[in-house]
Amino acid sequence: MAIFLTEASKVIVQGMTGSEGTKHTTRMLASGTAVVGGVNPRKAGTSVSFPQGDGTVDVPVFGSVAEAVAATGADVSVIFVPPAHTKGAVVEAVDAGVPLVVIITEGVPVADTAEFFAYAQDKGVRLIGPNCPGLISPGKSNVGIIPADITGPGRIGLVSKSGTLTYQMMYELRDLGFSSAVGIGGDPIIGTTHIDALAAFEADPDTDVIVMIGEIGGDAEERAAAFIQEHVTKPVVGYVAGFTAPEGKTMGHAGAIVSGSSGTAQAKKEALEAAGVKVGKTPSETAALARELLSR
Known about the structure:
Blueprint: E1 10-14, H1 19-30, E2 34-39, E3 47-52, E4 55-62, H2 65-72, E5 76-79, H3 83-95, E6 100-103, H4 110-123, E7 126-128, E8 134-137, E9 141-144, E10 153-160, H5 163-172, E11 178-183, H6 194-203, E12 209-215, H7 220-231, E13 236-241, H8 265-274, E14 278-279, H9 283-294
Parallel strand pairs: 1-2, 1-5, 2-4, 5-6, 6-7, 10-11, 10-12, 12-13, 13-14
Antiparallel strand pairs: 3-4, 8-9, 8-11
């Protein structure tokens, strides 16, 4: 079992023929992901040769997502297109009936995200991102830009706003491994929240401990804390990035901005601890807490 992504997932890449799309498609294939097609209207009918093992694999390029889905049965799309074209790419994937759309692109206008998120919700499509590293079910499938070789399969579920902290946590707990790791992105509006991932991990029989990484800004972590208190029976450990962030400054992610006491790391830490979540002061301390819980 894994959440959102399994070895049976068939993945298409919107923007596969661009430099980022090509680079990360190569990595996804190398980690065992079933990449079944790319989409580029200008290169429809061609194919791209990628190294795989000792040989190569040819991945066909389709003129539209609908054509790719009809030909391959794809059920996941990952988007590597510039910000100005992201809304169109997401709407196209939603219209084609792809149930899971992963948006890696950074710098997508918030108004565009609000529009395509509402559209996807109406159609019952799950979005992950934008401005996210994607998700991985180690040993099964890897969609996005998460390094596949820093951990293996295991019993920990990870949900994180931060890409780099996702990688650090996976590396620190690499000997224990992960059922799935989901990078949800740090924009003010994102398609999948901490709560969505917590609910999925709670329902996943192969996840025993959940690690949740948040950051300053907004109230997502406080809402997640309330959800954990009501609905999550599995042990959860947390980390909140940004204890030293100055008030009123946007830090890294577009959503990471503190206004007064709202959105501070301390307020989030207190809310999580009140819900029974053990919160580490550093990523390494958080990893040690997870290790301790898993060994019980």
